[in-house]
Design a protein that fits this description.
Length: 87
């Protein structure tokens, strides 16, 4: 499985309730492609979002987002680097 990053941009500040409802409505699209949301980050102005998924590949995440009607700008795979805390 790959870590896949999705970059989203919104014309208006995102309504989190509406976004949650859309994601819930599209849940089967993600499950069918074995795509699991790990975490999301929303900018303070609500115009940009980064989502991290665990999935077979980036194309599976693209397809799931398109079928679920979730907007995105870019989708790409990433490697995770753990950073040791400095003392």
């Amino acid at each position: 499985m790959e870590h896949v990053i999705v970059e989203r941009a919104f014309a208006e500040p995102v309504d989190l309730d509406a976004l949650y409802k859309a994601a819930e409505a599209g849940r089967a699209c993600y499950q069918l492609r074995r795509v699991t949301l790990l975490r999301s980050y929303l900018s303070p102005d609500g115009l940009r979002m980064i989502c991290e998924y665990l999935a077979p590949d980036a194309e599976s995440v693209r397809e799931a987002n398109e079928r679920a009607g979730m907007p995105y700008e870019r989708v790409w795979t990433a490697r995770v680097f753990e950073v040791e805390p400095s003392v």
